[in-house]
């Protein structure tokens, strides 16, 4: 097969079409770089030159929503921003939150990242912006997930009055959360507190022309079936967890492409290289290399050796379909 461009490879994989090889991309936090827009962009462009990922997932500091609405943080070199005070003290606190200008302040800094990347990449590499789900943002502002009808009503009013502060499209968006797990919330609760606020974000991105949108299901015991009807092209999750579906099972339960396949906490971090290669090849065997994007189950450690990432990518070239 003729070698594809990165964009051709990504969009073919999304559709389940034949590809010259499976697309690959890894992502992780670099707390120092994430302190500024210029730092994030410089890091992503450096990674693009070094690894040649097929698309870039824009990794922003996880505190930016909390910062924008007034949570107080202290800087820790090892952990990044550490919250010291929440802006929402009760359900009524959501109604008192100020309306934000999405192009100014902390939110404006994140949008600047998207603009600078677009100018530098000139369409050569798809990239997706990280956005936290509204329920996750609510938890960041209050320090706990809302559970009562009054909290749900307050959040609903707030989301309706501030939709522009919660979405911005590029090639697409990557919505992540810490609450798409049955260990944290029930499906019935998520139907009330989550889904009504998640879907308008994707719809807004699609209206702006986004065609490469990703749903990241964090943690274990994920709600794959419950959320697989979201209007996304790719689902990202930790397939290495015994409490999550395996890759082949996930592909049989959704028509979306799957992003993952490597065990990022141990194998990818510690090696050896032979184990990483074996893991990648096992993922390709399970998926047949169709509707599959190689990557981590979640953010990788900043201490992960470059040689391990390069070995994972190289394993894509050595695998051949039977």
Can you give a write-up of this model?
The protein has helices at 6-15, 37-51, 64-69, 92-95, 105-121, 134-142, 149-161, 187-193, 195-207, 224-227, 247-253, 267-270, 273-287, 306-318; strands at residues 56-58, 72-76, 80-85, 127-132, 172-177, 214-217, 234-237, 257-262, 292-296. Strand 6, helix 10 (224-227) and strand 7 form a beta-alpha-beta unit. 44% of the residues are buried. It starts with 5 loop residues before the first helix and ends with a helix. It is of the alpha/beta class. Helix 2 packs parallel to helix 5.
Secondary-structure content class: alpha/beta
Instruction: Look at the structure and give the mean pLDDT.
Output: 87
Gap from first CA to last CA: 16 Å
- Over the alpha carbons, how many angstroms does the gyration radius reach? 19 Å
């Amino acid at each position: 097969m003729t070698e594809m461009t990165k964009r051709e490879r990504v969009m073919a994989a999304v559709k389940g079409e034949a590809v010259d090889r499976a697309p690959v991309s890894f992502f992780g936090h670099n707390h120092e770089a994430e302190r500024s827009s210029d730092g994030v962009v410089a890091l992503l462009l450096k990674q693009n030159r070094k690894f040649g990922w097929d698309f870039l997932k824009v990794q922003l500091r996880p505190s930016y929503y909390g910062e924008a609405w007034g949570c107080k943080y202290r800087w820790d070199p090892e952990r990044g921003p550490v919250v010291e005070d929440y802006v929402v003290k009760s359900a009524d606190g959501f109604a008192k939150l100020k309306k934000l200008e999405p192009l100014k302040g902390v939110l404006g800094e994140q949008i600047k990242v998207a603009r600078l990347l677009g100018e530098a990449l000139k369409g050569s590499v798809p990239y997706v912006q990280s956005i936290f789900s509204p329920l996750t943002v609510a938890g960041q502002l209050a320090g706990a997930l809302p559970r009562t009808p009054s909290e749900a009503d307050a959040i609903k009013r707030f989301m309706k009055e501030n939709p522009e502060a919660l979405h911005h499209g590029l090639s697409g968006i990557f919505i992540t959360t810490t609450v798409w797990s049955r260990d944290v919330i029930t499906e019935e609760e998520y139907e009330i507190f989550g889904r009504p606020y998640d879907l308008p974000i994707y719809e807004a991105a699609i209206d702006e022309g986004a065609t490469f949108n990703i749903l990241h299901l964090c943690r274990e015991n994920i709600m794959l079936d419950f959320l697989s009807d979201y209007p996304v092209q790719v689902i990202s999750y930790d397939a290495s967890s015994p409490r999550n579906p395996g890759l082949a099972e996930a592909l049989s339960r959704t028509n979306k492409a799957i992003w993952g396949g490597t065990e990022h906490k141990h194998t990818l971090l510690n090696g050896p290289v032979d184990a990483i290669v074996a893991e990648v090849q096992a993922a390709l065997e399970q998926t047949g290399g169709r509707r599959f994007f190689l990557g981590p189950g979640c953010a990788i450690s900043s201490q992960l050796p470059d040689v391990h990432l390069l070995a994972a990518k190289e394993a894509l070239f050595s695998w051949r379909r039977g």
